[in-house]
Design a protein that fits this description.
alpha+beta, 7-stranded mixed sheet
Length: about 190
Amino acid sequence: FDLEAEMNTEFAEQFAKAEGTAFISGDGSNKPTGIVNGSTVSSTTAANAASIVADDLFDLVHGLKSEYARSASFMMNRATLGAVRKLKDTAGQYLFQTGFSGQSGLPNTILGHPYVEAPDVADIATTAKSVIFGDYRRGYMIVDRVALSVLRDPFSQASSGNVRYIARRRVGGEVVLAEAMRVLEHP
């Protein structure tokens, strides 16, 4: 059993979870500034504080400039995705469309745009920002300042028979082009 490899995997997973939270809602204080905390990202106000309707998504998509909409995708958590998958347009067609099983590489889409499931995006609730839509490559910059490094320290606790591991990773993130993204905010 390779304990060090297992620990490196666990360190990487825990850092990735913390980074995901920071990229969405970080306050910029010793962590990245998140997309929903980037005060310059425009928001579309949802029709209802406790639910989501099809018109909210249409407003979100059409509120984004065409040049960004071409490469845009939705970002929401699993519970919000479940609510969105139930939405229908006025003709009774679901807004969520599954990729064709016979054609590999076609993603599931909402209003013709792919989606990303991000557990750190807020649930649908009063004053929540539950859906993000945009071209993230152009709108948000992530900088990997220090790659994951793990230091094995067998000396500091040698008298007790323990080995200490010190893991370090530094990243930064910030909204760089706010007009490339929009957020659905509930009243």
